[in-house]
Hints:
Blueprint: H1 7-38, H2 55-63, H3 66-97, H4 103-115, H5 118-131, H6 138-162, H7 166-174, H8 179-208, H9 211-216, H10 224-233, H11 240-264, H12 267-278
Amino acid sequence: xxxxxxxxxxxxxxxxxxxxxxxxxxxxxxxxxxxxxxxxxxxxxxxxxxxxxxxxxxxxxxxxxxxxxxxxxxxxxxxxxxxxxxxxxxxxxxxxxxxxxxxxxxxxxxxxxxxxxxxxxxxxxxxxxxxxxxxxxxxxxxxxxxxxxxxxxxxxxxxxxxxxxxxxxxxxxxxxxxxxxxxxxxxxxxxxxxxxxxxxxxxxxxxxxxxxxxxxxxxxxxxxxxxxxxxxxxxxxxxxxxxxxxxxxxxxxxxxxxxxxxxxxxxxxxxxxxxxxxx
Length: 279
């Protein structure tokens, strides 16, 4: 392959690098401003705050009831991850191993929540949950988050399941393994990397999911991202440092889980596995 080294190509590469650098600097500057302000005693008209303190974190913890919000967030995340794993892996196995009429249509239905904006189906979904009396409750938030989470698990797990030779399962059944034994002793050890990858990414996605959670959450079922929104836009006067402290807690929580997720999964391996299967 011959690489183009002409003036036009060099200018194009320089422009791409310049735009990328500008974007990164802008993003880092915004994050740095939020973090610095969360520790600032006063910051007006100067490059750096006049002094630093940690009292805004204690203030945010009490004012916004961060303890209760974090408990709700962890409960929602745990239930969404658990149910997504159970339902998503089962559905992925059926789609990967069974060829039946309408299979492509079923796949399309699973992919729709990932292809369309959440607000598009979030409002009708919230209406149904309100009529069922589930909106404003913890289980209402969980059900709303399951709509995009289960298809995400299905999409991630199908390539992992398809790479397992069906003859392994046939051999296990020949030696007397039942369905439960086949899954626990044969399939599960082979699928652990894919399951961890899918569930960790669902975890990060659920923490960051705003639209669906905002539409169905109540006063006692708000996750951290929704509580942060209300802290910014609710009526009343609040110290900007307290809100920024809450934002830093949210960023740190999401970043930690994102790093853990990327430790277990390479985002390109899903595409690579799918390409190998097509070949």
